[in-house]
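Dear Dr. L.,

I hope this message finds you well. Following up on our conversation about the binding site, I have prepared a predicted three-dimensional model of the protein together with 3-methoxybenzoic acid. For your records, I am including the exact sequence and ligand specification that went into the calculation, followed by the structure tokens. Please feel free to forward this to your student if that is useful.
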Amino acid sequence: MNQTAVADLAPQRAMPAPNVPIVNIDPYSEEVLTDPYGYYEQLRDAGPLVWLKEYETYAVARHEAVTRVLTDPKTYCSSAGVGLTNFHTEKPWRKPSIILEVDPPEHSRTRKVFVRILSPRALNKLRERFEREAEAMVLRLIEKGEYDGVTELAEAYPLKVFADAVGVPPDGRQHLLPYGDMVFNAFGPMNERFKQCFAKLGPSIEWINMACQRENLTKDGFGADLYAAADAGELTHEEAGLLVRTMLSAGLDTTIYTIGNALACFARHPDQWKIVTENPGLARQAIEEVLRYESTFHSFYRTTTQPTTLENVALDAEQKILVVVASANRDPRHWQNADSFDVTRKATSNMAFGTGIHGCAGQMIARLEGEIILKALATHVDKIELLGKPHLHFNNTVRGYSSLPIRVTAKKH
Ligand code: OVM
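The resulting structure of the complex is given below.
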């Protein structure tokens, strides 16, 4: 073998374009994940497009550049994976998602079915049940007074109402949590956090695979709807199972951490809580501000399909770009008083659900759960206080708490 051939076999090191600012921040370190907002500011201020030295990848952290990347799926694709792993060169930890990790035209077919099943019309039928559960749960917790806001409310509510809505068995639902943790860690680097999570995963994968099968789903849930779409010829039956897997992957950790983040935000901002308690109708707008201020989903990737120019930087094909949606949501170029938590703000252009053709397909049910829980709390609870230090849960893609010791005090009627 001659010298050139050996050089060709050597692993290629990705190189930044010559005119791109280089940033030496590890966005997955505990330091950054503990309080990311100063780091996001550094990323935004370094330039509209930067190079992350640690991971040899580009990153966008301003609202405008994030929008640009997410609204051009032809150039910035999802089929190479939306994590740091490039599916063209590295093996994904599980069979790729047929809605998240694909491009049009494949994406369009699965997305269409998924969106119809989660349509406002379908969700309207769930509202009453969701409200009844929220009311009962909140009243029980007021009775209790002091509790863990994560396990007893933020986890308990979606594990009941969302998992019921999909139609999975009641026994074993705790498996959804380590599984979801893995799904979201896997969008980041294969760091210790990823490895430890993977090592603990065994029985949870089995449970999820079981729960995605038609015979284990109720006859009236989203899962049954997906299999009905397969009967109608819109999907194969295997695809229906994979889309149930998508619901179980994407639908729990996200809403769970959002409810926890809402509790933490309001415990820390009693003036904002007062505004919502005086007008529980603000719950929907308030959950939007929670999503802007403490975005549950902090970041993911796109991959260039061809050489292109972004923010005056020439990019090669096959380049990963970290899209920091949580930073876009704090960008002072887009938001007034970006760092203040203000429930009177209209936060609807936030990027917490992404945007474009891959914008969160479950965002309406996520908002519904958040709104209903906040409204039940705002109707009955006067004060939310932290009793101790909340514990953050570290994950490569989502942000939230593993425990939130709180006390709630009932309103005097
Ligand atoms: C999926 C999936 C998993 C996690 C998140 C997500 C944000 C989708 O399995 O399709 O969307």
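In brief: The radius of gyration is 22 Å.

With kind regards,
A. P.
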